[in-house]
Design brief:
The complex is a heterodimer of chains A (about 325) and B (about 260). With about 325 residues, chain A is an alpha/beta fold. Chain A contains eight helices and 16 strands. In chain A, β6 and β7 form a beta hairpin. Chain B is built from six helices and 15 strands. In chain B, the strands form three sheets. A nine-stranded mixed beta sheet of chain B has the order 11-10-9-12-8-1-6-7-13, sandwiched between helices. In chain B, α2 crosses α5 and α3 crosses α4. The chains are: A alpha/beta (about 325), B alpha/beta (about 260). The interface between A and B is large, with 90 and 81 residues. β11 of chain A pairs antiparallel with β11 of chain B, so a sheet runs across the interface. The complex binds flavin-adenine dinucleotide. Flavin-adenine dinucleotide sits at the interface of chains A and B.
């Protein structure tokens, strides 16, 4: 039986993919297999309903390296008779998708949000034009390599395992990249994707010290502080986990407040599903006002403390 | 040793408007430009060349209109350019573009580093770099936020979700960069004038042995999501505006969460 093969270098992402894989498997009459390579947790897959978990003991798989993992997955996919390969659309997952698809000479789609089956093929919705539009795209022929956004699915609950483990003997060319050091990022636990209220701040903010007033507003609203990309990557005033948009988090809050943000598409894609959008900007022609339900034309440094006071009042 | 920088011509996304009735993007008359993060890749290429010597060669695949984009790359400091031109290459999918770029690079000469942006401004799928690496059987280092080269060795810091990973590899190597790696220069007028006189090589896909078969990826629809916003602007002075806003949020039941 043809199979849907699931892999991510992060188990929690792979487990989420299983939710999507199970749905596709039911509609397409395919079984769900998983590749538990490297330090991955084979039992975790089994207890989440996977019929075959492929494992390999090769030394080369100890660390994730895209070209090595592409070789491994090509071989596992053959063994599993995979028609669809689902990967996590993390940075490592995306670089793997390209390398693997090229190795297999097939098409690939990354950053896939919703997946649907039409005429026996998977149709993916993904952002296009920087997030200005949402495209429905499908791979017409051959094996479908699809990297799915980590937030798209929910992991099935663990249950009594029914599948089996198959250890495969892989032949792998070693990596030509040498890992010298890893510096873990301090993990910010803020759940931007799940927040009911987001107070987003952009380059209109005068300085790092002014973050305090933004924090206070967020607290008064019972929300979380998020930001545009340059505030995290260039100014480094907030951790990158707080970035909202195409290369950051996609939120779905009831209320999003945008302070000193121009409203370029790569940002607005991250808040466009918000129930209500409020914008504060000195430039009355700022594009963000087109996206907003309520707008205040003014200096955020004056508006924010007043607003916080009014909310507390 | 050559440093190749792959650049993509895209519509200027800030100027794409949405047709209200159909929710389709309006692309007619929107100016074309070089991808945002491609500029970071170019800047990094120029910086490395100034240190290591050799040449920076801008490479791009697309339609006849590529000339303007390539001129921008040359003005930013590339020494030469390669264009692969065919109508079908305009907006072509990653696998086709990667094959055209890889074959053109392979034909041109010794490869040191092939640089790209982490993803294009419009599609942002990040597939072309890894595909080129696979086609040319080279190691790939993606999402690089800091890059150094010494002799034949490159040392890079990758910005991944959970960590910064420092890696080393021997050239030739494919490197994709993130926007925070540098601040791209704005070319001086003299550089823009010089750009027109720098060497340019044009290939057709056939000359490179690249076959443009039918697409593997089909776009079924591509529409802006429905947006229905009130667009109420308060402009009565901060004190009054804040009151109006609080009243509005109150009436929507958004306060006191
Ligand atoms: C491939 C790609 C992916 C990207 N991904 C993302 C992403 O995920 N998220 C993201 O945010 N960006 C992303 N970007 C960057 C994006 O294009 C914009 O550059 C960015 O969103 C702009 O941030 P900003 O609005 O904070 O800054 P700016 O565009 O500089 O806007 C600042 C705004 O503040 C206003 N302002 C100034 N002073 C004040 C004041 N005192 N009070 C009130 N308002 C004031 C100004 O009028 C202006 O409108 C991406 C870009 C690319 C190319």
């Amino acid at each position: 039986m043809a199979a849907i093969l699931v892999f991510s270098e992060r188990d929690e992402v792979a487990f989420q993919l299983l939710g999507e894989a199970n749905k596709l498997g039911e509609q397409l009459g395919m079984e769900v297999a998983a590749a538990a390579l490297g330090l991955s947790d084979a039992d975790g897959f089994l207890s989440r309903g996977v019929s075959t978990v492929y494992t390999a003991k090769n030394e080369e798989l100890k660390d994730f390296e895209a070209s090595v993992y592409a070789q491994a997955l090509e071989q596992v996919a053959k063994q599993a008779d995979a028609a669809i390969i689902l990967l996590g659309s993390t940075r490592r997952g995306k670089e793997l998708a390209g390398r693997l698809a090229q190795k297999m000479k097939v098409g690939s789609l990354t950053d896939a949000g919703r997946l649907e089956v039409i005429d026996g093929r998977v149709v993916c919705s993904r952002n296009a034009f920087g997030g200005a539009t949402v495209a429905a795209q499908t791979i017409l022929e051959g094996i479908q390599v699809i990297a799915v956004s980590p937030s798209a699915g929910e992991a099935p609950a663990a249950a009594e395992p029914s599948g089996s483990v198959a250890e495969v003997a892989l032949v792998l060319e070693p990596a030509r990249i040498k890992k010298v050091a890893t510096a873990p990022k301090s993990q910010d636990s803020a759940n931007i994707e799940g927040a009911e209220v987001l107070v987003c701040v952009g380059k209109g903010l005068a300085g790092e010290a002014e973050l305090k007033m933004v924090d206070e507003l967020a607290q008064a609203l019972g929300g979380l502080v998020a930001c545009t990309k340059p505030l995290a990557t260039d100014e480094k005033w907030l951790p990158e986990e707080r970035i909202v948009g195409l290369s950051g988090k996609i939120g779905k809050p009831a209320l999003a407040i945008c302070l000193g943000i121009s409203g370029q598409v790569q940002f607005t894609v991250g808040i466009r599903d918000a129930g209500t959008i409020v914008a504060v900007n000195t430039d009355q022609n700022a594009f963000i006002f087109q996206m907003a339900d309520y707008g205040i034309v003014g200096d955020l440094h004056q508006v924010v403390p007043e607003l916080t006071a009014a909310l507390k009042g | 040793m050559n440093i190749y920088v792959c650049v993509k011509q895209t519509v200027d996304l800030q100027q794409v408007r949405i047709r209200k009735e159909t929710r389709e993007p309006v692309l007619d008359g929107v100016p074309l430009t070089i991808g945002n993060i491609d500029k970071n890749a170019l800047e990094e290429g120029v910086r490395l060349r100034d240190k290591l010597g050799g040449k920076v060669i801008g490479v791009s695949a697309g339609s006849e209109e590529l000339n303007d984009t390539i001129k921008e790359a040359l003005a930013m400091g590339a020494d030469e350019a390669i264009m692969i031109i065919a109508p079908e290459l305009e907006g072509a999918e990653s696998s086709t573009v990667a094959m055209a770029l890889a074959k053109a690079i392979e034909k041109t000469g010794e490869i040191g580093i092939i640089l790209l942006g982490e993803g294009s401004s419009d599609n942002y799928s990040g597939q072309v770099g890894p595909r080129i690496a696979e086609i040319l059987d080279l190691p790939q280092i993606t999402y690089v936020s800091s890059l150094e080269a010494e002799g034949n060795t490159v040392k890079a810091v990758r910005n991944l979700e959970d960590c910064f990973e420092t890696v080393e590899a021997e050239m030739p190597v494919v490197v994709s960069v993130v926007s925070e790696i540098n601040e791209p220069r704005i070319p001086a007028v003299t550089q823009i004038l010089k750009a027109g006189r720098k060497p340019k090589q044009i290939y057709s896909p056939a000359e490179l042995g690249v076959e443009i078969a039918g697409s593997q990826i089909k776009t079924i629809s591509n529409l802006a999501p429905e947006q229905d916003r009130k667009r109420l602007l308060f402009q009565e002075g901060v004190g009054q505006d804040v009151k109006s806003l609080v009243a509005a949020l109150e009436s929507e039941g958004l306060l006191g969460r």
